[in-house]
Records
---
Amino acid sequence: MTSPIPQPPGLPLLGNVKDVDPSNTWWSLKTLADKYGEIFQIKALGHKIVFIASAALAQEICDEKRFRKYVGGPIVEIRYTVHDALFTAFDHEENWGIAHRIMAPLLSKESVANHFDEILLCTQELINKWKSQDPNTKFQPLKDLNNLNLEATALTLLGKKLGCINSPQEHPVIQAMEDATSEAMKRPNRPKLLNWLVYGGKFKRATKTLRGFAAECVSYRKENPTDRHDLLWALMNSTDPETGKQLTDEQVIDEIISMPIGSSTAPCALTSLVYYLIQNPQVVVKAREELNTVIGPDGELKHEHLSQLDYIQGIVRETLRLSNAAPGFNIEPIPGTTGPVLLQGGKYQIAHNQPMIIVLAAVNRDPTVFESPLEFKPERMMGEDFERLPAGVKKWFGNGKRACIGKNWAWDFLMVVTARLIGEIDFEGAVGEGWGEKTDGWFNVRFIDFWVKAKGRV
Ligand code: HEM
């Protein structure tokens, strides 16, 4: 006997439009998951979407023999900006494979390790900035971390120094990413005419800024030839070993833009990290002991240390779990499946073409997997304890073929920034300015109104 999939009551004709706030979709979904549990559905504007909120169900629908990435809604909308780039390509599009095979070797663990010094240099620049400012200054760490992330992404993958860490202004690419992704999230829920007449201009301007930035990176490389074999070099010169094809000029731009959009998730995770460190001073003490043991009190962080910093690895994983900085991903049954699809051995039943969204805020806090799921406990993310966790709660970088191509870069970046911040900075919450756990976001989620003070350690 299958159980019905719970659905909020909704309104006649309009369905569940009121259950999801279009300006804070992921917060609404987290709230619905808290209320309805492991699976629920909403119906609006003639569409039904099923949401997955438990580790067991997430694990089941990550089985690539039965399911695949669903390219729909906001992902289709952002194709206006990046066309059939890696993140947005439909399964049948040949360019996904061509771009993947050209790019993946430059984002392997080994290739990313070659960028360690550049990541460290950018991180040090931010640490120096925070150390030199008045320790009573209240600031939003997300803004500085966004700049750090963009700087490090551009320097390592595109070989271009932007100089945005110490700049008083936010780099225009950051606002353009916010505008393009927020538009992409909102458009599926608005009438087409309204999208075109009222909001089309914003989408167009943001896209122009992003494509202009990418085109500048290409021109800069052409005007400043180098023997650097970085990602930009591969995008501009490599040939796909399978088809013998190269990327067109347009495709190079599409893929360049996808890099800062993808990596913009990392500063959201790091902002959460700052929050969890402030809330858990005992974690900071333990991490500093580890840094002392592995690197020594006056030693310099080296790439080989990253794999020895077990506790800091636990901190990074626990941050990825609780921050759910990439808030979810879309799945559908593999086409050709006939008849209804059964989940959990027949407990639930969905249509053969039913889109589903994994809500990581719920999956990563599944109480059947984690004791005290809201607590920040790096220990459970270390060694054998981490290995023993079910695969469904380790999906912060997505799944299978369409998992994050930047995961090695993100891992090294998060490890370096975490180790250096813990080693060098004492944070304090600037309570009284909306300091708390409420989040918002589009393709990523981050704290709203999160202010801190930072003091360099002597
Ligand atoms: C904390 C950091 C990051 C997290 C949590 C994260 C998470 C994810 C997730 C969940 C997906 C799967 C999306 C889906 O199935 O629709 C994904 C895909 C992707 N990510 Fe990341 N990501 C991070 C950093 C990065 C970085 C640094 C880059 C680029 C340098 C990047 C580029 C991409 C791209 C291009 C895809 C699409 C891959 C494909 O479909 O072939 N991400 N990421």
---
Amino acid sequence: MTRARWTSGEASDRDEFNLTRVFFFAALHLGVLAVFWQTNWMAIGMAVMLHVICGGLGVCVGYHRLLTHRSFKCPKIVEYAFALAGSLSMQGGALEWVALHRKHHQHSDKDGDPHNAAEGFWWSHMLWVLHTPTNENWRAILGSILLAVGLYFLGGWPFVVWGVCVRLVATYHITWFVNSASHMWGYKNFESDDLATNCWWVALLSYGEGWHNNHHAFPTSARHGMKPWEIDFSYYFIRAMKTVGLAWDLYVPSPEKMKEKLAQKADLIAGRFSETAGKFSETAEELKEKFSETADELAEKLSPPTAEEPA
Ligand SMILES: [Zn+2]
Ligand SMILES: [Zn+2]
């Protein structure tokens, strides 16, 4: 099956179970266990740095905010650098990632959404990846193999274990948490017809991507953290790029647009209240009727029999 399925609007096909990916993810998770005998501070530092570059800049800023949603513009060479960094997170090539994610926004939490959160935590977290009928991106795979070899020559097995296994497993689960936890737990600033939420701990781990209700409300916004406490490292980085002239045309919704969305939420809440109030008054009417019927019946039963007419 090719990627065409995901661009044709069809729902996912559960028969497309990809066993190779099961082995790949299992091996990667098992590789993490090697930290018990392959660890040093340099290796940990290398993993953090690669996580920031390939996950934070590559996936969050590059694949997501720049290539999928075009929330800002930058020189082509910078765009390629982001795409290269993103491909080293082994989440597929940029084109495929963008197509899948656009599908997610188009059908959020409904049929046709690759990681429909309405189907439960595990499906939206990682099971969908094992069933996604996409092509493997050999250039991205080759890039990661070269990176692993380079890491081995730089710092031996600790660098490979931390820079590849630990870093990739962390990046995968953090990305997947955006699709699972940030469609389940947290709060909503804006009303939406999907399950997306603002989940603070996902936002902290994912460089701001966990402010997901904000993101679904304004998908093309470069800024996902809308309130002062909603820390958004990806946006801070884009702002820094703008300051040095490497980014321009940043789209951020105006306060008026946000107020409009908030007013929609207020309307919806008011609507729900009046609906509930309507239901209460209907029930009260029904109860009143039933009471008066029962009272009539009782009065009939309790009233003394009328004296018989003497013959
Ligand atoms: Zn989402
Ligand atoms: Zn998005």
